[in-house]
Amino acid sequence: MSHKTNLVPVIAVFLLFSSCAQMTTETLVREEKLKVANWNVQTFFDAVTTGDEYTEFVKSGRWGKEAYIERLKRLCSVIKAIDADVFVMEEIENEAVVHDISNFLAGEWNGQKVYRNAVFAKDEGSSIGCAVLSRVQLDDMKVHSLDIRTEESDMPRLRPIMEVEVISRGRRLTIFVNHWKSKSGGEEESEIWRNRQEGVLSSIMEKGIQNNSALLALGDFNRDIADFDLASGGKVVMRFWKDGTLVDSGVCVQSPWFSDSGKMVQPGSYYFQEEWSRIDNMFLAGKAEFIEFHVAVEGPWCDSKIFVPNRYQIWNGEGYSDHLPIVCVVRF
Fold first, then answer.
1. Nearest CA to 219 among 323, 97, 118, 138?
2. pLDDT tens column, 185-238
3. Can you give the CATH number for the domain in which 309 is found?
């Protein structure tokens, strides 16, 4: 099920593939390039208690306005350091946080670096959602939600897939922002819901490929790149549901996690139980291609030697996030 919603206005104070064969690597006519970043910013709540926050934020005597402002400063310092044209975030509490981020970024004298546009989406009753900041025009936002009642277990609260068009000098790139079901409750038990979300994504991307569009799906998929249906050359075959079975959709997307030599890009984006994983992903399809990709490790948001994320900790107010940002340059 999908529905359309309006763009979220941001108040800022300024100081004065239907098949693998359809993937294209040919020289694009009248091409445009954009730098795009994605970061799960780890439970980024504001200082106002509404009852939807995670328990540790409600009960912590150390969480409040001062701690929130400090987190805002750190987040905005990372956004400025990465310097992307489009900055996508998972685990933002609400629209008010998006407004605050925009205000903290205000005062940029270089007009080309101002994030003038933003969108935010989450399901009603959810604690966190996804946001997009952009220096270029955003248009035609939609959210795609699931309502599944045919499984043996009740559907948990799932975050919708956000679809929005990025428009730069007349060129259009459609992005799909994802934050799939986590592995809480058991990896095998929760996989059914990630599969369902994969089915939604492959369905809407297939329509974009048929329309000869440039497509970029990105976000926290809570699934390592190695656990997708992989084809050769860093390609991933998306799947969808048909007659109650998960089957290949024929939608083939490109992953940047595989280097030209076929080896995985180092490091990963998430570090858990002393192991790296690559659950934060970017997938291209249609009239678009990657010309650059890296994990952002050049700042205090990670260890300077082994690059482990410097996760945020409420008890001492230190840290940034338990994920690392991933960054690409897309030509379309």
1. 323
2. 899 999 999 999 999 999 999 999 999 999 999 999 999 999 999 998 889 999
3. 3.60.10.10
